[in-house]
Amino acid sequence: MLSTFEMLLESCGYLATFVGVMMEGEVSLVSSVLGAKSGLYNFWVATFLAWLGAWTADWFKFLLARKKGTQLLLKKPKLQAKLDKISVWYDKYPGGILLVYKMFFGLTTLILILTGLRKISYLKFAIYSGVSVAIWTATLASLACYCADTLLRNIKLISDNILPTVCILFVVAFLIWLFIKRPYRKACLDCPELEG
Length: 196
Description:
Blueprint: H1 4-11, H2 13-23, H3 25-37, H4 43-75, H5 77-92, H6 94-100, H7 108-117, H8 122-154, H9 156-160, H10 162-188
Helix pairs in contact: 2-3, 2-4, 3-4, 3-8, 3-10, 4-7, 4-8, 5-7, 6-8
């Protein structure tokens, strides 16, 4: 019989997937697929919620750049220099970049800021973003599904303790975001080797 804590975690799996992918996409998506493959919740619902979470986060960044992007660039001239560098290839292939921007790890936010500043229509962004996030979600979910099967088949410790493992993975994902990704993103705005 499941404890109250385990039942709470099981019932919150979908919410954790949505919120986790909004905050830190890749790790949370992989953790969610691992939980779904172990039978805690439906794989397809979790994958859809991962897509929805990533799409929502991208819309937030796009709308923020569209409304406050110019003010942000006035406060962050180094960010403007980075955007100038990537805008060369963005302006040359806007449709291609927008179709696969989510796969450009490390450049996604810059591309979304640039897209918001270019005043691309909401409908066009919705379509391109939806497709790009779908490609990203399908790719990572497929890889995670394959890895989850391998892990669950070959590592008895994980398969015997899947709920604590998923909880640990979510905690690790949050800690990575809190102590590594977030400070790194802030530091990258002041990165001297990207200048010039």
